[in-house]
Structures are given as structure tokens and as C-alpha cells.
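Re: export button greyed out
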Amino acid sequence: MSSSDLVAIVVTTIVFGSIYGLVSIGMTLIYGTLRILDMSQGSMVMVGGFVGWGILTVATWNPVVALVAAFVVTFVLGTFTELISVQPLMSRRGEIDFEMVTFITTFAVAIVLANLALQIFGPFQKNVPPLIHGGVSILGVHLDYHSMLMAFTSILLMIGLGLFLSRTRWGFAIRAVAQDLDAARLMGVPVGKLYPLTMGLASALAGIGGVFLGALYFASPTSGDLPLLTALIVVIFGGLGSLKGTLYAAYIIGLIQALAIVLVGTTWSLPILYGVILLVLIFRPYGLFGNPSEARL
Amino acid sequence: MSDAAPILDVRGLTAGYGDTVVVRDLSLSVQAGKCVVIIGPNGHGKSTLLRAVSGLMKPMAGEVWFDGERIDGEQAETIAHRGMVHIPQGDGLFADMTVEDNLLMGSFPKESWKDRQATIERVFELFPIVRDKRAQRARTLSGGERRLVGLGRGLMREGSILLIDEPSLGLAPVMIDNVYGAIRSIVEAHRTVLLVEENFTHIGEVADKVHVLETGSIVRSGSLEALMADRTVVETYLGVL
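Workaround output, generated via the alternate export path:
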């Protein structure tokens, strides 16, 4: 392995791992807190992409405005999604298969959002410009500034989420609800407000990821499908509901993909990745850091 | 008995699960600064009573008045904000959070959160063993330590009443002594307490009034001394001494 191969592997791992982490961590946050697999998370990536396109391509405003706008729009949309697809079922949690029903209701929201995007923006892909143009070459490996900013922002947001959960009153409340709902209610945690807040926050992280991914690929009504699949794989591989597991899984998947791309070639990167995931899940069906009986934030 | 209005007034409460009635037409009251103990065998409705009072379950019938306001049917989080502190059976600690974070969660209501550091120091002074374990995850604690953390967390906000569910459950005798030492210090600080317990051996240290619960109804009431003097009560409900 040459030194340029090594640089390519390290860089690809960091870039892929960081963006995988960013689009997946919200799903883990939601599963850990609400015990639902939120199928609308891919739509938030898609919406973030369109917000990026509207602000960077149409309005030609500052990239910071695009990131802030994507955060706000997807936060509101995530909150609204919780209110219409999860909250009405909360009081009947004991009577129904809550995980399965909310899997379907959030998927329904995703379908509606994709079709709304199709209606408004049409079926054609929209080009989103990089947030920063240009790049640098290290040992013959080209690194574009956009990917570097994407990795840096993702890492920063994940650290920010960690600090929010470990230092703030509402962060404490989210962790408490994830671990013992009744005890959290006895502490005075208003779960009726906390659940929409959690889904809003998780969606906002996916929305920011959407701006970066939109620029890396494009924005379209179906551009959230692949990130949704990736997020599902990452959170299941890491262990449902485990934040630590999600972060490790994101970077391990990034590393496997980087090794496969550099050493074997792009064609075989996905078959190798899914082969490894298949093997791991056969031996650890609850994922790398999941608990056989329950998962915790 | 004091003439003052009780802090907690339960009137004809009926509660249960599905079609099964566990607590039947139960009435009791707790005066400010007093410790009322409900004693009864396992499965006769002690925990259900506390859950119905604190809002974790909706009563089927009856009324619950707290601090002069009717609260039955309100959500547990709303009742918690009113100043009711319920320490549930099994402590309800957040297993993957540290002892310190568990205590801080006790100060979740906004008005308590701003004073949390001063309050936690007071809890540490009251229970020094909890200070020593502050950085440990709750899941690594022994049963007795968990119970003390649960009590400490209950003191992290200015509650008008503490509902304590079977604090001696599953503990070794030496740990029960420690836990009841902590409860005694809470009662001596004139906090209002409603405690349910299967084990009567320690309640004499703390109880102002005792109710005996059987199949969801109160069948005897009085001071522990008066109940202990009643041979029928001792043999039927408290066991042979």
C-alpha cells in the first residue's frame, strides 16, 4: 500500500464516516428516546438539499444562511412530523405494536414529502454548488474543501449534540426518557413537548447533512432514499438506540468502504461493505454496541 | 389530629388495570409535616395507590386533592411540577446515567434547576455515601446505595410531599437500617411523607399514623403502638412478633 493509498483511505474514512454519522445519529436519538424507527429522516436530508439549492443556487446567498435555514426548516418539519404521525398514537402505546405502526406512519409522511417535492420542484435533479469551492492535493490525493467542511461540520455537530445531551436540562431529560419513561415523568419531564423537540432536533441534523449531500450529489425528490437506507444500516450495525454504537458504526462503515474503494475498486466497495455487515449481524444480531434486551442513549 | 387542611386528601379512590380493580374506594389524608405509613401484604394495592395519586395511572373513580387543588386525572409530570415527589418501587433510577446526573434530574423543574448545585451539596451532606459514588453509573450500585440515591433525588426539589414505595424491598437488614436512618432524617426535617411498606419492623421510627391495607381497602388505622396492641391486627396483618 502506497502512502497516497493510506491518505486516500484516511480521508475517505473521515469524510464518509462523518456524514454517515450525521445523517444516522438523529435516527438513533429518536429510537433511543421514542422507540420508533423514523422513516421520515431521509426526507429531511432531501428537504435540506432543496433548501441548499434554493439558497445557494436560486438566491445565491451565503452558505451559512443555507445551513441555518436547513436547520430551522427541518427542525419545524420534524416537530410537525412527530405531532401528526407519532403523538396521536402515544396514549394507545400499550395497546398497539407502537414500533411497527409508527414505522408505517413516519414512512407515510416520507411518501407525502417526496411527492410534495415532486409536485413543487419537478422530477429533475437540481445542482447545488459546493459550500466552499476548490481543494488541495496531499501526496497525490485530491481533497476538496467542501468534503473537508462537511466532515468538520458533522464532527462539530455530533460533539455539540453530545454536549447538549450531557450538559443541558433538556439533554438530561432526553436521556432520562430514553432510560425510564415513568421515572422521567415523575421528575416533571413533559414528554408531550420532549418528543416533538427530539424529533425536531434529529431532523435538523439530517437537514444540515442534506445541504452537504445535495452539493456532493444533487437535490431531487428521491435524494433522501439512499441516506435513509444508509442511516438504517448504520444504526442497526451500531446497535439500535446506542449513540456510541452509531458513531463507531459510521466510521467503521466509512473505513470498510474506503479500504474497498482504494484496494479493490469502486465496483466492489458496496458488495464488500454489505458482506461484512451481513457477517457481523449474523454473529451479533443486536449490532456492535446494542444490548440484546434493550438499547440506551 | 390537626385542624389544618391536609396536604394530600384521597377520597374514595378506586384504581386498577384494565377491568381488574386493585384499590377500592380508599380514603386517607396526610397533614403537613407528618409521616403516614400504609402497610400491607404484597399485591394488595400499595404501589397502585401511589401510582394513582402521583398520576402514573388514571384512577377509575374518586378524587385526589393536593395542596387544596383537585389533581386526579392530571398527568404525572404536571403533578410533579405541583410539588409531589414519588420515589417508585425499585427506585426508578436512570441506570446508564451517573449518580450525580440522576440527582440533577431530580431538579428538572425550572424553578429547582437554577439551585441544583446548592441542593446537591445539601443531599451529599445528608447522605455522604452518595457523594462518594457520584461519578458511578447507577446500574453499578448495590440495592441499598440505589435506594439512598433514589431518596436523595427525591430531595432535589422543594416538594410538598414525598411518596416512598417500599424502601426496604429486597435489602439486607443492615442496608434497611441505613435507608430508614435516611428516611428518619427526612421526617425529622418536617417533610411530609406518605410511605408504603410490607415490612413493619422499621416504620415505628418514622410513622405518625399507620393504615393497614388489605385487598385494596384500608382495614385498620391508628398509631403503630395502638395497632401493635391489637392482637388481631398483629396476628392477621403484621405477623407474629
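Residues 46 and 224 of chain A are 5 Å apart (CA to CA). The button fix ships in the next patch.
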